[in-house]
Amino acid sequence: MSTMTRISDATGRIDLRRRRDRRRRWLWRGVAAGVLAVLGGLTWLLLFSTVLGVRTIEVSGATITNADDVRRLADVSPGTPLARIDLDAVATRVAGLPAVDTVTVSRVWPGTIGIRIVERTPLFAIETPGGYWIADHEGVIFNSAADAPKGLMIAQITGNDPRLVRDLGTVLSALPAEVHKRVRQVSAETADSITLQLDGGVRVVWGSADQSALKAQVIVPLLQQKGTVYDVSAPSNPTVK
Question: Cis omega before residue 235 (within 30°)?
């Protein structure tokens, strides 16, 4: 084989390889362009199109709370792309409703925002001239009633000091079950004069909400002693009369 033939064969192989390389490059460029087009389409579909926009807001767990109030505070415009909804912001706004304890917000594809609320649990009712305010274990007033709510202990307090209401929530939450079920009324003129009225004419002087966990431990054996007034305001030195 002559030198010219070898050079020609080598040149042909180089040209073939170059053509193949060019085809590969164009193929990869085409694939990359296709991928980018798909990603762009998905981005537009998720973030800008109303195809996957909000059509429904489903509210669950609302018993005391008005579901329409939940939707109003959620402040989610119909058609807003689901992927762009700030779920934490929605939850924060809905949590502003008095009866709402916790909120969970979720996306339900293709077009629903789900809002699940857990409402506050009533612990006691505060007697007022116009009816009763209902509060939970944190002393948060979240509902009202014209008549004394059944199953709730009644609280009589002087004034409307929010701290005193919180203190009552602390005390009543600390009570052991066997004492809690005996409480008929709780009263307080000041934060240091919380008193529990139990069945059978028994009175428990609790004092302040400080050391409520310790006072709860002390009151159980103390009630085993005969008496009508049990003072645990100083839990290290309780008395019975």
Answer: no
